[in-house]
Amino acid sequence: MKTAVVYFTLGGATRSFARAEANARGADLLQAVPVKKYNMLTAFTRGCPAAIRQKCVPLQHSLDLSGYDRIVLMAPVWAGFPAPPFNTVVHLLPAGKEVEVLLVSASGSSDKSHDKVRALIASQGCKVVAQRDIRSHQ
Ligand SMILES: Cc1cc2nc3c(=O)[nH]c(=O)nc-3n(C[C@H](O)[C@H](O)[C@H](O)COP(=O)(O)O)c2cc1C
Does residue 99's CB lie within 6 angstroms of at least one atom of ligand 1? Predict the structure, then answer.
């Protein structure tokens, strides 16, 4: 099974977890980089409202995910939802893929967005086979 781990990070925590995940699985590691970069301020002012509304943001490079059987999506949780570049990657998913969602947060919980995230991925014709939260701070 060919697997890709696709991640967005602002502060670097998600990158560390994504690297470990890709190494453990022998998967390719792909980064989603937004055209308009966030900083801590704009993550709150611009990123959080967009995250809650599950909005997409343009990425610097499109990602070709057609050659993979399983795609592991990783992103930080902003205001309870995956950060907006995650949504863009979901829209790039070819139908029929197996998808895992691994979200990184300070609290280790993204419960309030679980159903909406599943619905977004299902709307692409993909199946969520695992959904897990990772706590970034102990
Ligand atoms: C704009 C913003 C919003 C956040 N909202 C939440 C939240 O709702 N719940 C939570 O547990 N952590 C929240 N966090 C903390 C991040 O999810 C956490 O620090 C994560 O590890 C950051 O990942 P990164 O270093 O890959 O960017 C937020 C952080 C930022 C910058």
Answer: no
* Residue 125 reports pLDDT greater than 70: yes
**Partners of residue 29 on adjacent β-strands:** 5
Q: Is 12 in the pocket of ligand 1 (CB under 6 A)?
A: yes
112 C-alpha vs ligand 1 centroid, how far in Å? 14
Residue 118 burial (CB count, 10 A): 15
User: Per the structure block, which two tokens stand in for 135?
Assistant: 């706590």
- Answer whether 107 contacts ligand 1 (Cβ < 6 A): yes
Residue located nearest, by CA, to atom 4 of ligand 1 = 78
CA distance 85 to 106: 19
pTM over 0.85: yes
Rg (CA), the chain: 13
80 lines ligand 1 (CB under 6 A): yes
Question: What proportion of the chain, given as a percentage, has pLDDT over 70?
Answer: 99
Q: Tell me the pLDDT tens digit for each residue of 12-70.
A: 999 999 999 999 999 999 999 999 999 999 999 999 999 999 999 999 998 999 999 99
